[in-house]
Amino acid sequence: NVIHYTITEIAQRVGVNSSTVVRTAQSLGFDGFPELQSLLRRHFLSQAKVAQRMHVGSQHLIERLGEAKHGEGHVFNTILRYELPSLVALPHHVSSPLFDRSVAMMDRANHIYIIGLGASFPSALNFSIFLRYIRPNTTILTPGIDPIPAQLIALTEGDLVFSICFARYTRETLTVMDVARQRKASIITVTDTHVSPAAKRSDVALVIPYRLKMYGNSVALFALMDSLLGALSLRYPETTRQRLETLEELYEHFNLLSKPEE
Length: 262
Description:
By secondary structure, the protein is of the alpha/beta class. It has 11 helices and 5 strands. Strands 2-1-3-4-5 form a 5-stranded parallel beta sheet, sandwiched between helices. Helix 1 crosses helix 2 (18-27), helix 5 (75-93) crosses helix 10 (219-233) and helix 7 (121-134) runs parallel beside helix 10. It is globular.
């Protein structure tokens, strides 16, 4: 498969020289074949099924392990090195003005509804748990309890929907965004491209480009959400502190947490 074959392997299969593969990529406007291959990988994975993504991600990881210097070819170290560029590139994709606009929108909203389904649900749930300490009027749209439509009864103008929606773009998430648009609520989405179905439905799209992995975006996504939480908490330092102190008192009352000596 061209998305994980080396230049030499592609040249052998097509019956040309390796230099021909490179020139072909350059004739299409790329600096070289790796840039073309990266684009093809992102396009494939945006449509790939889970099993296909797992296969390609495994192949790519094997390649990186093979390319690692002596003593660095460990899975843990390799994946960490792979994650770092996504963090470094995050400010390039999410500019400071766009970030500040998102914070202001969340601050103004009467009520915030958070949705992320499938593999995005754990991220959405984690975000909502901490956001409620800062903005109590926060609801996580949860599948499997009430139907999602029943949880949207109170959604209205002045509210905000915050969606996490990566390829392959869950239809129910997109429908929630459509309902928000109809009711004149604001919409922020975290998605993988400016032309995704989620981005087209939103007022603000915070883009974390899709990357070749066996699983979804994780480190950069959590860094972005942590930053949003931090910026909002700085707007309400005293009330946030009071709510957290009240939470600790309730934890003690319910005896939920074990003590270090236990």
